[in-house]
Amino acid sequence: TYLFIIKCVSHLGFNLFLFNLCPQIDDKEFDIPQVDTPPTLESILSELEEEEEPFLLEDTCMLNTDNIDAHSCDTSSLASSDSGDPAHLKRKKKTMDVNTTVHGSVLRHSLLKGISAQIVSAADKVDAGLPTAITVSGVIVVGTSHGLALVFDTNQALRLCLGTKTTGAEFGAVSALTINHDCSRLLCGFAKGQITMWDLANGKLLRTITDAHPPGTAILHVKFTDDPTLAVCNDSGGSVFELAFRRVMGMRSCDSRCLFSGSKGEVCCIEPLRAPSDFRDHPITHYSLLAMASLTKILVIGLKPSLKVWMTFPYSKSDPSSVPQLAWQFVPVQKIVNPILAFCKGDTVHFLLVKKEESGTIHVIKQRQLQISCDIISLSWINSRTLVLVDSHEKLQVLDRPSQEVLEIMDLEQVQLVYNSRHFKSLATGGNVSQALALVGEKACYQSVSSYAGQIIYLGTKVLVENRRRIDCLLKQENFVEALSLAWSFHEGTAKAVVGMFGDPVKRKGVVGDKMVEILFQFTEHALRKCPEQGKIQVMEQHFHDVIPVLVDYCLLLQRLDLLFNQLYARLVENVVAKGVFLELLESYIVADRLGHLTTPIMRDLLAHYHGNGMMDSLERCIVHLDVTSLDIQQVVKVCWDNQLYDAMIYVFNSGMNDYITPLEKLFAMIGPPLKEGRSLTDEEVVMGNKVLVYISCCLAGRAYPLGDIPEDLVVQVKNQVFEFLIRLHSVDSSEEEAVFPFIRTLLHFDTREFLNVLAMTFEDFKNDKQALEYQQRIVDILLQVMVDNPDFTPSQVGGLFTFLARQLAKPDNTLFVNRKLFDQVLEFLCSPVDDSRHTERQQVLLELLHVGSVVHFDEQRLLTLAEKAKFYQICEFLYEKKHLYDRIIDCYLRDPLRKGEIFSYIHNLLSMPGYSPEEKQTVREKSLQRIQVWTCMTISQKVFTYFFLLTHKDPNVKKYHHSEATAFLLEKKGDVHGAFTVLLEFSAFCNLSTYMSFDVCTFVCQDPVYGRGKLSEIQGLILGMLDTFNYEQTLLETTTSLLNHDLHWSLAHLHAAVTRGLHPRQDHCNICLQQYKRRQDSAEEIIVFSCGHLYHFQCLQQKGCGWGVSEQQQQWSCYKCSSSQGGRAMPTTELKRGRSTSLAQVCACKERKNFRQKDTESVSSFQNWCTMTVS
């Protein structure tokens, strides 16, 4: 009985299927014929099978010729055995006939629920990870993605759990497993290159091997040999190493020796010859043979007694993605049992018989090959006659080697085999493998298949089979973006129609996250492979612009920056265009604060790329958003200073070193000297000066520059440091000629107003901070000391200082102390009538002082005198209002050009609002009547406001002021709306500016809300109705005129074309006399051609009486033949008149003379006369 175990490991449930050859064979079922005398075992063993006729490879130069004797060389070649041997052809035909035999089912399977349930439990409860490798040898060992090895006995009980998740985090996933002959030792290979040895009796870790092969490569295979102290391993670099285990004085060690270097061709499969217990004494075992399959050939070497190559065999042409397979089996041939190596790459299985002669020579004899129509991805023996294959479509085939029959085919697609692609691509160590090895790895499932004692175990994944198929379907269509989007919806639990997901979000995200990482690697490889090698650089850049943002987005979503920067970027760097696009696209993520930390290599490449391509602005934007711990501060500061990246330099000093003063010192050193010398600043220096002002403002306000906030524990310290810096008496490198307070002087000379604005904003926050108030007073004292009586500053600059001080003193919570004498100077300056600069601002500042009562100690009369001289009419209004002299305020409004139009609103409000005494209102009325002549000189809009005044008084003698507008207003008030409008129209008719004034009145009436209420609304409605009617009639007139002009133009153009069109007579003779129209050569006869095509002599037509008219010039003609056919001779006058245009056009167009040029001139002349008549 042969037991086949197919283990389907799911991310949700791990299903172990048991396939088992039927233990009792039914003769009838298998159609076995009856025999009289059954053959003996000896006769069977001595029988020579057809397929085992020995012959050697044709290419003997690839073999070790020292070990091939003469007898072997006389055998058939590979070519002759395949193509020229009739017996071979006969056997092929026979095989096709036998294939029709029905064998029934030779396999049965059962589910190993115990192991499946425990793997699920381990993954769910202790986060053991997903299964990645399996091996069988008395026990079943399953390796996981979190570095654990689960050991089960034959009763499906979990015996050991080897390793920890800490080990898995350090070493990576288990990538290879092997057990020695006596099932006492277990070797585990890991994705990051380490190897561990375990004692299966007690679960003790015996060895951790970290230096057996070059670092940075994954372990693809690790295999024990028959010698328990000897093992071999194969890494993702394609190299093969021998591991010799030693124990000296209780100390365990491991010596490594390179058997084959990947630089000569990567090896992707190894298989040592391990003899069953019955053949341990076989002479071939003394050589410790090892078969190795590279991408181009098969090698068989002996490890003992010394390293020796016994055979090399090159592949025939095959698909580069085909996976090489190796499998040893001891087979009885001619009473002698010798090992046969089965190997394949593609769809052909080759068999090599290896035997040893008494002389010690090893012969390698090629057996008959087996051809199948599929790409093989797994090859295993279950006995000396039967093999089990798995093709790329995951179809399991059981084949009988002697007859080359397929005994049974089973679909393993539901099992979903685990593939070792991640390890072949060495993703855990950066993906540093060749493209050829990575391509083979797409179908590699070496660690998912293990055979032992006639049993084969297949490790599969039934992960959310339906969910995963949805993703795989998109991947097959190369829709990587859609596949990632779907996977992310699984990751977040937002996908629809989900089957079998983990309930635990952490587990679900772990499973889907691993799948997304795999898709990202596939997408990267696909992008690099599909990138056009030639063509416009823009096309290549666009290609990667469509790919790289997707990679970055999903790495950020998965929080896998290590994947993005260490592995994906390492692949993209191989393409120069992809590298540039990647680095440039990082800017948007950095500026958006989605990416704040870069690795040192990435930052180095970023600086080099941006600097090399002149993208300094982009570089600065990136630096100020990055975590300073990822920056080389010295290099960045140098780059920033050399390229005037002042924002980035300030950010590095502030965030990286908590130094807020050094940037100020560097910037002042640049802008100070030119300002001191009086030179004009360059654009670069102006930019630096502005940055200094903004930087100082941010520091004093507790904000970081250029963005963010200063840490709370540093806010006060930074403020104090900046204030101390500003009030320094001298700079660090000062000379004897340097004036005191150089930094404040520099800022005042650079931009006095903006510097004072910065101080003003800073002082707004100084309320309860005693230290800050002291700095405030100190700054003000220094400003006064530096600027007052200093010829270096213009009066405008000094005025800006006084304005600043006045605003500070006007604050209710002002704590500044200013000398009284200085305050007098401020007041004198603000009210100076000589200086007209910033007149409005100075008046506003003084008005603020008056409102807060800071100058009550001044003589109000003196202040009023100064205000009148300075034309501060708002100040005068303030003082008059304080004294209740409202009539004088009217004069202030009339004198102030900016507020002259507001006089009427002021008067209306004063007279209509409560709070004023009748005497005060009467005074204002009288003052208004006295100033009415001034109002007559105002614009019409201002006059209209007088209506409010007159409305209040209803003065019947308003006509004496010759105010038609006022008269109309009073008429309207009486209810005579039409009379009021008539007065306005009469006034506009006799006024020199009637048009303008009427328009002004109409505009005001239509817009003023007063005319929208009551009877006043009738005037507004009347005007708006007139305007609407005017607009309608104007549009109608324009449309009618346009249509008439168009019709007239068309008619005239048509008539002109008809008159000037040439006529073609139907014949060349007169239709009356039937003679040629040119009867004599010297004749000057006239002819007449009509539009109907008939031609006549003038005399003939005249004789027939077909013409009429007063004179010859005005005579009209009709066609004789046409008029005869219509029953009349000539057209009457009445008919001519009714069809005047038609008749005239016909005559003008038909009448021709021999002198065509003269006749044409006459026609045009008659046409122009007609046009003139028509127009008139």
TrEMBL record:
Keyword terms: Metal-binding, Phosphoprotein, WD repeat, Zinc, Zinc-finger
Q: Which InterPro entries match?
A: Vps41/Vps8, Vps8_central_dom, WD40/YVTN_repeat-like_dom_sf, WD40_repeat_dom_sf, Znf_RING, Znf_RING/FYVE/PHD, Znf_RING_Vps8
Q: Which residues form the RING-type domain?
A: 1070-1123
Q: Does the keyword Metal-binding apply?
A: yes
| Listed GO biological process terms | endosomal vesicle fusion; protein targeting to vacuole
- Out of the domains of life, which is the source? Eukaryota
Would you name any one GO CC term?
Answer: CORVET complex
MF annotations from Gene Ontology:
zinc ion binding
Return any one Pfam family short name.
TPR_Vps8
Function as written in the Swiss-Prot or TrEMBL entry: Plays a role in vesicle-mediated protein trafficking of the endocytic membrane transport pathway. Believed to act as a component of the putative CORVET endosomal tethering complexes which is proposed to be involved in the Rab5-to-Rab7 endosome conversion probably implicating MON1A/B, and via binding SNAREs and SNARE complexes to mediate tethering and docking events during SNARE-mediated membrane fusion. The CORVET complex is proposed to function as a Rab5 effector to mediate early endosome fusion probably in specific endosome subpopulations.
State the similarity comment: Belongs to the VPS8 family.
Descriptive protein name: Vacuolar protein sorting-associated protein 8 homolog
Q: Which gene encodes it?
A: vps8
